[in-house]
From TrEMBL:
Keywords: 4Fe-4S, Iron, Iron-sulfur, Metal-binding. Residues 78-117 form the 4Fe-4S His(Cys)3-ligated-type domain. The keyword Cytoplasm does not apply. PANTHER family: NITRATE, FORMATE, IRON DEHYDROGENASE (PTHR11615). The keyword Iron-sulfur applies. This is Ferredoxin. InterPro entries: 2Fe-2S_ferredoxin-like_sf, 2Fe-2S_ferredoxin-type, 4Fe4S_Fe-S-bd, 4Fe4S_Fe_S_CS, Cytosolic_Fe-S_CAF, Fe_hydrogenase, Fe_hydrogenase_lsu_C, Fe_hydrogenase_ssu. Residues 1-78 form the 2Fe-2S ferredoxin-type domain. Transmembrane segments: none annotated.
Length: 568
């Protein structure tokens, strides 16, 4: 360690860390807008400036490393005045719409301004002229609110390797947008929402579909069912001040009942079903010389990425629809029939950690029941807002259980929300189907964890299945390039669009970092451990579905309702 002086106190810190890191380690929360713990240093916003003895100008603490003997002041009048002035300049260039902004309540700019006691906005207010971008079903861009911090572009380029958001012009004319000011629908955006997740203000956010859900719930003619994605149960509680990694399945079910949904079902049910279909598809491809490696197809941002950037590899994708879409198709056929309802009277709402799921639900392929199978998709954040609007005290909610039959699931389904989870769930089932033996150790730990590209190999009665796993599109690209170069000897590959898998999706609570992702993942494995059944093929509701309705995996009805083909 080295010694530095921080606000008059001598402190030992590790060499090579930044002043910002050193200050935060000592409990001094310096303000930042462009800085994000999972991103490279940008030093764009300058509000983290500090004073160093012997250095004439203030320096940004996010990009300046500590050195032995450095004497740093973070709270001098000069620092405070400078930060205030920067904030006032940002405000002068920002629409004064805080009351009606979607980020009202969790805007980072507002929170920092409140801390610094900004009471006045100096200078001439800029007239704004950008139009909003409502071109996609997933995301809304409001360039007037952009503070040019650069976090969105960083997520888009370096984490997702998509790179459709750029910084244009210089100085006061700087803006961040797709090329030539195009709309998101007109560029190769995959709608993952990682930009929205890191935006500190309301410049890019999920399309708000909460009013459509309120309307459905108020319509006495409609039977409104809701499905909840695996990842939501370990993140929603954060919206109500719980620590990350809190498992809130029971409270989540109660909350949805309080909102008035007629049935509270679980995407985990159809995740188990996906394993049945996808597992058999894999075995079929292995036995009959089908295209290998087969790649998972449940993450809609990932599908869109393949369509834009690697169309020639689309035949590698499994033909299985995602669990969200399998659920929608079954809710309006199987569930409708068994409960004496007509499909036209059912509204299917999903709660997902993902912004691309809104797009997926509106794809023309997703009408197997005769109309749109999933009607409305909410993100975790939107559900959080609905519960707040309804005045539901999340802490006081009792634990409740999902409804049957589309609410019955196994632990294998819960881990779908974590990177490696779909692979692990599939291996548990495929192993037992192929070998006829009972798996003694269900935990395929090699496929777990936050490493970007993972590998594992499983012996299935003499046939080796080589598994590859990637999360975050920059990592997925590495595997795709290996396939193109003929260097990938995988049998089965799982790709999840977002870092950490769905628990790190673009619709998850603000403040998501890799550290928080790891805690949510741990919680999902805990959910799995706590379940009485942990293998998808043991799900009794899925067994009944095959017995009474689908008849067999990959059968005629499965093909009609549960599979699709994407175009290349
Ligand atoms: Fe996921 Fe899913 S696991 S994509 O990450 O497969 O969004 O959580 O709902 O559909 O089940 C998201 C999460 C899902 C689906 C499931 C899959």
């Amino acid at each position: 360690t080295i010694n530095i002086t921080l606000n008059g106190k001598v402190t030992a810190v590790a060499p090579e860390i930044t002043i910002l890191e050193a200050a935060r380690q000592q409990g001094i929360d310096l303000p930042t807008l462009c800085h994000h713990p999972d991103q490279r240093v940008k030093a764009n916003c300058r509000i983290c400036v500090v004073e160093i003895e012997g250095v004439k100008n203030l320096v940004p603490s996010c990009s300046t490393r500590v050195t032995a003997g450095m004497n740093i002041t973070t709270n001098s009048p000069r620092v405070r005045e400078t930060v205030r002035t920067i904030l006032e300049l940002i405000f002068a260039d920002h629409p004064q719409e805080c009351l009606t902004c979607i980020r009202n309540g969790n805007c980072e700019l507002r929170q920092i301004a409140a801390k610094f006691g900004v009471r006045d906005i100096q200078g001439e207010k800029r007239k704004h002229s950008f139009s909003q971008d409502f071109s996609t079903p997933s995301l809304v861009r409001n360039p007037d609110k952009c503070i040019k911090c650069g976090r969105c572009a960083e997520a888009c380029h370096y984490i997702q390797n998509v790179g459709i958001l750029y910084s244009h012009n210089r100085s006061t004319e700087i803006s961040i947008s797709p090329e030539y000011g195009k709309q998101l629908a007109d560029v190769a955006c995959v709608l993952c929402g990682q930009c929205a997740l890191v935006c500190p203000v309301g410049a890019i956010h999920e399309r708000d579909d909460t009013d459509r859900v309120w309307e459905a719930l108020a319509d006495p003619q409609k039977h409104v069912v809701v499905q909840v994605a695996p990842a939501v149960r370990v993140s929603l509680a954060e919206e109500f001040g719980f620590p990350s990694g809190e498992i809130a399945t029971g409270k989540l079910v109660s909350a949805l009942r309080s909102l008035g949904f007629d049935r509270v079902f679980d995407t985990d049910f159809s995740a188990d079903l996906t394993i049945m279909e996808e597992g058999h598809e894999l075995l079929d491809r292995i036995a009959n010389g089908g295209i290998l490696p087969m790649i998972t197809s449940c993450s809609p941002g990932w599908i869109k990425y393949m369509e834009h950037y690697y169309p020639e590899l689309i035949p590698h994708l499994s033909t299985c629809k995602s669990p969200q879409q399998m659920f929608g198709a079954l809710a309006k056929t199987y569930y409708a029939q068994t409960s004496g309802l007509e499909a036209k009277d059912i509204i299917v709402v999903s709660v997902m950690p993902c912004t691309a799921k809104k797009f997926e639900a509106e794809r023309p392929e997703m009408n197997a029941s005769g109309s749109q199978d999933v009607d409305i998709v909410l993100t975790t954040r939107e559900l959080g807002r609905m519960l707040q609007h309804e005045g539901i005290d999340f802490r006081m909610l009792p634990e409740a259980e999902f409804d049957s039959p589309l609410g019955i699931s196994t632990g294998a389904a819960a881990i779908f929300g974590a990177t490696g989870g779909v692979m692990e769930a599939a291996l548990r089932t495929v192993y037992e189907v192929v070998t006829g033996r009972t798996l003694t150790d269900l935990n395929f730990t090699a496929v777990r964890g936050m490493v970007g590209v993972k590998e594992a190999s499983v012996d299935l009665a003499g046939t080796e299945v080589k598994a590859g796993i990637a999360h975050g599109l920059a990592n997925a690209k590495k595997i795709l390039e290996m396939i193109k170069a003929g260097q990938a000897d995988y049998t089965f590959i799982e790709v999840m669009c977002c870092p950490g898998g769905c628990i790190g999706g673009g619709g998850q609570p603000y403040g998501t970092t890799n550290e928080i992702r790891a805690r949510r993942i741990e919680a999902l494995y805990q959910v799995d451990e706590n379940m009485p059944l942990r293998k998808s093929h043991e799900n009794p509701a899925v067994q009944e579905l095959y017995h009474d309705f689908l008849l067999e995996p990959l059968g005629e009805l499965s093909h009609k309702l549960l599979h699709t083909q994407y175009c290349n």
